[in-house]
């Protein structure tokens, strides 16, 4: 009797190799959320690039399967060794007037044969980088990324919606340091740049992580991938916040001319004050809204402003 031979259709499917993704900047809130989203997908293997050996936040990712590699961002040779076998590099490292660490990371990615590279953008539109003083370095790095020969993209998400939770008694699960920006729900106050009808985009850091993980799974990367929880106006957000807490807010408006005068009075070494003021000018100029490519290209269902406000401020 001849034993039957199983056909190809009955053989178990071959396991697809995991895509190796490295994240630079995992000690901040955004990098942590991106790592969590990637780790939730068995298709990905996640490597954490960090200057520090470990901490509680990193340990929580390691227990989920992440690999930790301590690197020297001043050495592209050291970084290239850490990137061996990596398919995609995503950076969330805060860039402040120092291009060296991210230039080293880019050069290392090229040397290690990395396929994809996403520099640390995660903000307003590309046009806003020219206006935002600490982001001038991003403009310079972006030109180098374009010439690198790697597949690349700029992730853009507008403003982190998370800041609207500043002051809430509801525990915030992220690592981002929260402070009121434009809207202070706890104080029932808002100081709005422009007329308040300028449109801008908002996304939670958790949703940014989910969008980025979904983008890594895409076959091709366009040069820019925007995302949004919602694109709306500050006037509408204040109305929604008033509805949620059941109180009227004290609202004032700051014109372009007033902001420009403020900018003149802020010392050069107060880069955060200058950054925030320039950001407010970018909002007035309509540079804070992004094109939500990933909302259409993926199945991520993000949190909108109303849901977020109700979570942290609803009764």
TrEMBL record:
SUPFAM superfamilies: NAD(P)-binding Rossmann-fold domains (SSF51735). InterPro entries: NAD(P)-bd_dom_sf, NmrA-like, NmrA/Isoflavone_reductase-like. Keywords: NADP, Oxidoreductase. The keyword NADP applies. One of its GO terms (molecular function) is oxidoreductase activity. It holds the Pfam family NmrA. Belongs to the NmrA-type oxidoreductase family. Isoflavone reductase subfamily. This is NmrA-like domain-containing protein. It comes from Crucibulum laeve.
């Amino acid at each position: 009797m001849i034993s039957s031979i199983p056909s190809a259709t009955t053989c178990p499917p071959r396991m697809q190799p995991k895509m190796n993704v490295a994240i630079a900047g995992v000690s901040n809130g955004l990098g942590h959320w991106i790592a969590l989203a990637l780790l939730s997908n068995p298709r990905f293997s996640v490597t954490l690039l960090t200057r520090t050996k470990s901490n509680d936040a990193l340990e929580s990712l390691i227990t989920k399967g992440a690999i930790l590699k301590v690197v020297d961002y001043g050495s592209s040779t050291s970084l290239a060794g850490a990137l061996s076998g990596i398919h995609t590099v995503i950076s969330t490292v805060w860039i402040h007037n120092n291009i060296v660490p991210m230039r080293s990371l880019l050069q290392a990615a090229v040397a290690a044969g990395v396929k994809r590279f996403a520099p640390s953008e995660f903000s307003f539109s590309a046009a806003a980088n020219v206006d935002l003083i600490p982001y001038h370095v991003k403009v310079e790095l972006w030109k180098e990324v374009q010439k690198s020969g790697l597949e690349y993209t700029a992730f853009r998400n507008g403003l982190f919606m998370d800041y609207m939770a500043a002051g809430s008694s509801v525990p915030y699960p992220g690592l981002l340091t929260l402070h009121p920006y434009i809207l202070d729900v706890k104080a029932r106050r808002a100081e709005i740049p422009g007329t308040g009808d300028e449109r801008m985009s908002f996304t939670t850091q958790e949703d940014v992580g989910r969008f980025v993980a979904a983008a890594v799974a895409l076959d091709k990367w366009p040069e820019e991938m925007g995302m949004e929880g919602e694109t709306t106006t500050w006037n509408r957000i204040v109305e929604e916040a008033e509805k949620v807490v059941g109180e009227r807010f004290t609202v004032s408006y700051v014109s372009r001319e007033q902001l420009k005068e403020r900018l003149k009075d802020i010392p050069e070494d107060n880069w955060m004050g200058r950054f925030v003021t320039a950001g407010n000018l970018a909002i007035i100029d309509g540079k804070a809204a992004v094109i939500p490519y990933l909302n259409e290209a993926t199945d991520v269902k993000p949190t909108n402003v109303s849901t977020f406000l109700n979570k942290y401020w609803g009764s």
